[in-house]
Amino acid sequence: MEMLNESAENYLETILILSKRLPVVRSVDIANELGFKKPSVSVAMKNLRNKNHITVTDAGFIYLTESGREIAEMIYERHQLLSSWLTILGVPADIAAEDACKIEHVISKESFDAIKRHVKK
Fold it and tell me: Distances in Å between the alpha carbon of 103 and those of 32, 39, 43, 52, 68?
């Protein structure tokens, strides 16, 4: 799987999360969700489109491609699991979510899988 920068991974994860909540996802929805300006989001969408991680329709609807969905689901799973694990360890939920956001991008597959195995016991 192609390694992306943290920002690109966050955008893909956000598109995935929004697609569970909204009938369609547009740049403005992503901008609102992340608190970014629309021009920054447009640049990011162009980069993700060039890497074939998303498709954008003429109407501006954004969809994850297979590779985009794969990355988004991996990051989302990491976020969910790390966040709940930290909460179980006694970290306040808001801090756990914030830390999970940072960890999810830098943790190796091996370390994450080990934590996952441990948590699932």
Answer: 24, 27, 25, 25, 20
Bridge partners for 54 per DSSP = 64
List beta partners, residue 62. 56
**Number of neighbours of residue 43 by Cβ within 10 angstroms:** 10
d(CA 110, CA 23): 35
Q: What is the average pLDDT across 39-67? A: 95
Q: Output the pTM of the full model.
A: 0.87
Please give the pLDDT value at position 49. 96
The terminus-to-terminus CA distance of the chain in angstroms comes to 28
Distance CA 29, CA 74 (A): 22
Q: How far apart are CA 25 and CA 60, in angstroms?
A: 8
